[in-house]
Amino acid sequence: MIKFLKSNLFFLTVLVVIVFFVYGKSVNFGLTKIDDDVLTIKNINYISDYKNIPKFFLTDCYFGKQTQYYRPVLNISFAVEAIIFKDNCKVFHTTNILLFIFSLYLIFLFLSKLNFDNTVLKFLILLFTVHPVCSSVPVWIPSRNDTLLTIFFMLSLINFINYLKTDKNIFLFSHLIFFAISLFTKETAVLLLLIYPLIIYSFNLKISKKQIFNNVICVLPLLITYFILRHFSVRSVNISVYFTNFVYYIKNIVIGIMLYIEKIFYPSYMPIMLYNIKPTIQTYIINIIVFISLIYVYHKKFINGKIIIFSLIFSFLAIFPTFLQEEYAFLTHRLIISLSGIIILLSTILKKIFLIFPKTKNCLMVIFVFLVILFSFCSFMQSDKYKDSFTYWTNAYIDAPNYHKVCDGLAKECYHKNLFDKAVELSLKSIEINKKIDYYLTYATILLKKGDIVLSKQIFEQILELDKDNILAYIHLGEIYLIKNDYDNAIKYSKIALEKAKVKSIDKEITALENLSRTYAVCQKYKESINILLQILKYNTNKSNIYYLLSMLYEDVNDLQNAIKYIEEALKIEPDKTEYKERLEILQKKFNKA
Q1: For a tag on the chain, would you pick the N or C end, based on fewer CB atoms within 10 A?
Q2: Which residue from 20, 40, 42 is spatially nearest to 508, judged by alpha carbons?
Q3: Which secondary-structure segment (H or E) carries 574?
Q4: Dihedral of CA 432/434/435/438: which sign?
Q5: Integer Cα distance of 82 and 79 in angstroms
Q6: Alpha carbon distance 241, 244 (integer Å)
Q7: Running DSSP on this structure, what letter comes out for residue 237?
């Protein structure tokens, strides 16, 4: 029994219990509508078709070529879930929690390979498991990109160390495979390539000329393949921008790192998002204390200089690419991959303290228990900020009220809750800060829902002058013509939207088809509407609302047999839906009377 309690399996069990205790409620959370909806629900038909998986390697992570984010493995992770479980949010959230657990456990295994004290490592990892700075990782679905990177890179490092020690090709092959997967998970892996020689230097590992040759000769083709695929799949990066805006990016790096350090050592308040960050006096004080402490422990030989170099470089490289965005926003989930470097520093210092002052163990254990309880409570409460989109964007606005993306995001949420005055106010604020077409689209959509048809029509037409392929503008103009009983123009704009959508993606095409079907139905062209809905079913047979609409339309053309057939199909998907049950009873009575 004592042996089991000390085993790694027991530690993994404890990790699972603690993570699910603190973050388990997130299984029932919805979407925040910041990337998670685009990566999953909005493109569910596309990602749930296994035939599209090879295409992930030829587009950015949003299934287009407009951004510089090349992350096929992230898309594959969602595709696997969608293929098996369709659009089940509980599955997406559960997977996120499991990936978080696995990433932390692999950090432990990696550091164990470097001969750090297992007991100290376990306590530190448990502490960071519930640390508020990591609270967004298991509960925000898109953060799995960082846990996936952590998992595959840790596996690569573990196998790399095994290869150096045993010279067995199986470990070389495994290390290279996991590094390749890391590359296709997130761009950060390119920089993390520097960790391999650094780990040899810092931990005095031996490597033969043959092992160097084998690594180089295998890694080069991987990098070449990666950069070729990336070149044809995403928007190219204009490196000159980083030189012309050198001061801006240096400022982001310095302030961003200072804020991470503050939130690690004093997580008094954990923001969802910060924009245009301005350090406080508290930020400077905490960073000065940390810096002086590092100098002190090095001077007193508590820690080897090589270990400090490795830890700092590892942590820096892991988060460095996040500072190179056109608009840097502080998000704490990005820190997960850097934990290895932070834990190495803390583990080494604590081990030395225990050796010099053995009586401090009991005192530090009390502090540890107190911090775990405190952090667990804070992270438990913090995770609620991600429970749904309205809650998320409300809290994001509290943290970053002058960030145009946040203003637009909250405007959309207010619009969906029919808080039109607030939605208009926020939408105008986002446009005032940044005159993006998308923000004008949000503003015009809110005006349309509010009933200001004249102004919304003018804005939609102006949007099309700037972007003739804007599908939503065509769809909304079709809605406006429907309201004005101009059925010819309503159908015309709905058809244009469909033609534009066909060259975009299947999911955009389905959205346009649904819109055209509704337009035909309002225009009392029921047969045309039915044909469109049947066409949608060729792409997706799991949408109960399509069957429900078909049932209504067949009733409109007095085809009760098909009306009953399709409401029964809807009930197969959602058997407990009262609306569907009541409709089936009404139709059956009507059919029996006929």
Answers
A1: N
A2: 42
A3: none
A4: negative
A5: 5
A6: 5
A7: P
Q: CB–CB of 439/408 below 8 Å? A: yes
Residue 584 has pLDDT above 90, yes or no: no
Which residues lie closer than 8 Å to 499 by C-beta, 6 or more apart?
A: none
pLDDT per residue over 109-160, tens digit each?
999 999 999 999 999 999 999 999 999 999 999 999 999 999 999 999 999 9
Closest CA to 12 of 1, 23, 4, 24: 4
What's the pLDDT score for residue 6? 61
Determine the Cα–Cα distance for residues 7 and 72; give it in Å rounded to an integer: 36
* DSSP 8-state class, residue 236: P
Confirm if 19 and 138 have CB atoms less than 8 A apart. yes
- Give the three-class secondary structure for 254: helix
- Sequence length of the chain is 594
Residue among 127, 144, 179 nearest 158 (CA): 179
Write a three-state SS string for 202-227. HCCCCCCHHHHHHHHHHHHHHHHHHH
State whether residue 585 is helix, strand or coil: helix
Helix (H) or strand (E) holding 333: none
Question: Which secondary structure element, helix H or strand E, spans residue 240, and what is its range?
Answer: helix 240-244
DSSP-derived letter for residue 539 is: T
- Work out the burial of residue 25: count CB atoms within 10 Å of its CB; fewer than 13 is exposed, 13-18 middle, 19 or more buried: middle
Amino acid at 451: G
Rounded to the nearest 10 degrees, what angle do helices 72-85 and 89-113 cross at? 130
Give the number of other Cβ atoms within 10 Å of residue 453's Cβ. Answer: 14
Q: Which two tokens stand for residue 197?
A: 């020689």
Phi and psi torsions of 2, nearest 5°:
-60, -40
Residue 48 identity: S
Planar angle of CA 590, 593, 594, nearest 5 degrees: 85
Query: In this structure, which amino acid lies at residue 375?
Result: F
CA distances in angstroms from 371 to 134, 259, 445, listed in the order given? 14, 20, 47
